[in-house]
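Need residues for this backbone.
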């Protein structure tokens, strides 16, 4: 049984290992692989409009944030980032987190969701986002220097809420 709930700042020490390992791999997020814990806290929690965790019997197994994608006239569109623990992958948790984030985004007044930088090499994420109704609205050629694949494209994905 996994529960999705609002994250608390005082539990960042439990979220950090998920972020640290994904960011250090350097193959999905355009984040410095050597990001500090303090900078990751700002990126994932304090700069976000809301942050959530997925919690199971063994603790936190996933997390996501919601941020306003652009200020001013673009503030009605949000952006989200998701991370699922390796132990919880392949069980539909990313889909649950995305569905939850869409509900929360609507509750926060957003009318659309945009993913700014989905790597072409992240086939699983692309399949999932398309299955959940996101359209690829643009492609940035050679946008990311992947540690194993070299230069890969990044996609901009969008869904009206």
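Answer:
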């Amino acid at each position: 049984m996994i529960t999705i709930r609002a994250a608390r700042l005082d539990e960042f020490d439990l979220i950090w290992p998920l972020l640290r390992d994904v960011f250090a791999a350097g193959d999905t997020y355009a984040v410095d692989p050597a990001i500090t814990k303090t900078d990751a806290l700002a990126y994932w929690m304090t700069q976000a409009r809301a942050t959530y965790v997925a919690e199971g019997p063994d603790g936190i197994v996933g997390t996501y944030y919601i941020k306003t994608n652009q200020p001013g006239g673009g503030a009605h569109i949000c952006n989200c980032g998701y991370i699922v623990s390796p132990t919880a992958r392949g069980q539909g948790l990313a889909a649950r987190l995305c569905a939850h984030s869409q509900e929360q985004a609507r509750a926060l007044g957003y009318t659309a969701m945009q993913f700014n930088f989905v790597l072409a090499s992240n086939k699983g994420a692309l399949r999932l986002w398309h299955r959940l109704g996101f359209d690829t609205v643009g492609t940035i050629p050679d946008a990311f220097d992947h540690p194993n694949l070299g230069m890969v494209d990044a996609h901009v994905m969008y869904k009206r809420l």
